[in-house]
Amino acid sequence: MIDVQRLRVLRTVAEHGSFNRAAAALHLTPSAVSQQIAALERSIGAQVVARSTRGVTLTPAGRIMVGAAESVAAELEHARQQVDRLGSGRTQLTIATFTSGGRLLLPGALDRLTTAHPETVVHVRESEPEDSLPLVRQGAVDLALAYHFDGPLPGGPGPSSSLAWTALMEDPLRVVLPEAHPLAGREALDIVELAAEPWVFGCLKTETYLRRYAERAGFHPEVRGTTTDYFFARSLVAAGMGISLIPSIAQTPRIAGLRTIPIAPPTPTRHIGVAAILSRDHAQVRTLIQALQVQAAALDET
What we know:
Elements: H1 4-16, H2 19-26, H3 30-44, E1 49-52, E2 55-58, H4 60-88, E3 92-97, H5 99-116, E4 121-126, H6 129-138, E5 143-148, E6 164-178, E7 198-201, H7 204-217, E8 222-226, H8 230-238, E9 243-247, E10 258-262, E11 269-276, H9 283-301
């Protein structure tokens, strides 16, 4: 029999990358954490972490057990929510979403959800994918509207994960520059043509992505401004601070004096989708995913 508390300790060690940090998070001593991990290894007959001077990393067996730990935690949370519903008689649905996707996709989808399930109480929390996807796995939220670029999902579905990803739409990034800019009349731009331009960003991940993209093109972008809001970034572009790279769905509301130009292939793109644990019998989750698909299809047509 595998002890649930030992699985919880392993999951915390994996999250923090060391026994000391895991111990602080769990309000235990490092020795107690080490003992719990050792006991788990004895019970399954396999090593779950590899120890080094730089911390600890999961072994293949450890990754399997962390996946099991996440599933157990999510199922326990799901069971708690079901018990809560017995007392209230109403279904609670918690959604995590990133800002621009939530602003354009979620309101219309929620209209369809509440029409189909008027008894549902909806809770929405703003969260970036690296935070929201673990919340789904842990059962803290029912689904997450999220995105990723050309790499894998941050902490997303893996071989041992029960998390399912439903793709919704492609969201290409476009160059935003002042209408008076010499390149404003172009139908498309190659990223290397922008090597000498100063940049303003509305998202740290977009900046990271451009730096990687620019490195492949052979230049290092000069960054004049970094924000966490695409509207603010576009306002700075309108003020003449530089140009920006903005996802298509974050281009509204429009700002006067700006021009938006596609990037020539290979075009940097956000892949937007929804993550949920679909093995559960949760009609509201299925309804909302279908409603989000409808909303995404409508955006693609505009």
